[in-house]
Amino acid sequence: MTSLPGRVETLVIGAGQAGLAMSWHLGRAGRDHVVLERRATLGGGWQDRWDAFRLVSPNWSASFPGAPYDGDDPDGFMPRDEIAGRVARYATTIGAPVVLDAGVDRLRARGMGGFEILTSQGRVEARTVVVATGGFHVPNVPALAAALPPRVTSLHSSAYRRPEDLPPGAVLVVGSAQTGVQLVEELRAAGREVFLSVGSAGRFPRRYRGRDCFSWLALAVERGPELGAPLPPVASLPDPRRRLAGNPHVSGHGGGHDTNLRQFGRDGVRLLGRLLAVDGDRVRLAPDVLDNLAAADRFFDERFRGIIDRIINAAGIDAPPATPAAAVDFEPAVVEELDLGKAGVSTVLWTTGYRQDLGWIEPSITDEMGFPKQVRGVTDVPGLYVIGSLWQHDQASATLFGVPRDARFLAERMGLGPGPEGVQGDSI
Q1: What's the rounded Cα separation, in Å, for the pair 260 and 332?
Q2: What Rg value do the Cα atoms of the chain yield, rounded?
Q3: What number of CA atoms fall less than 13 Å from residue 202's CA on the CB side?
Q4: I need a surface site. Which of 244, 291, 381, 420 has the fewest CB within 10 A?
Q5: Whether 388 contacts 403, CB under 8 Å
């Protein structure tokens, strides 16, 4: 590891996949730089996931600049410790100059140019800065959680590790995006009765037209623009609030499989609408569970099917025709109030995502929703860049296969030269 210098040409904040990707480009160009990591160990945010976590995208997606995936199970779904270890080995392989235990308290742009950065290890000056802290900063727990009775354990998914840590009893999971749906499956497998408050997240098929869906998405990231079928860029969103939507759900467990909330209901999960209010054991619910299930069913057709089909046609790919998924005939009863005590609920698990926190940057670079104001990673502050942010360019920007593309673009904008695509490198 590296010690904190007093001055450096470029400072990268965050040693996850995005920060290390930029370190690779900086090192390749011979740019003097260091990478700050607030954690005591390498591995990025993957280290913070629950014990049984697995990637949702296939293992081949864990390819980094200069180090493509070289394992023996490209179509598998690696567990938490394997992906964290892969990120850590990547840092070592590329010789990234990482300073561990170096949290950043303040980043201030100086009037004469450059930046002053105050860290837990001291002060450093830099001419340019890349903020690679991702988009998952502060657990988002709704204010109504404070009204739960003291006997109920209220836990955000960031603090969840395994079912046996929870007190005996039923669990109310709030949120039906990727994390919520996977934890419902885990809790049910552990024998827990589960209630699920269904939100606005859609669902995604594991496979479509002969391939894992993430294979088509990765192709859309790399070739979509040239084929006339790009993923929608952030500037095209009809409503900026769409950036807050949870990721569509699908699972990498058991070799990878579809997840369908209607099937959950048939299997015994109690499906509910969104939480509106909490008063002790009394929880008031929106009567929207049927609408939310219908929206989840439509999600893939409305957002991604057309993009994938256009890519297949434009690229002349020999793909089998789409096979309609078997419909699951289940509609839950609409419940507008739940008594947690009578239902035996001992835990409320908030799988409600995170808020971004960039308030330590001066001047402020965030919009009214907390997202960094930037265009493809370039902010309005000269010399200040971001990478790995949610919806930095499109929905893939914070994914394993979207970060390398954004890092290549940003490297060129920073004058580091074009980054080669598909470059071969060392095994990690």
Answers
A1: 13
A2: 22
A3: 13
A4: 420
A5: yes
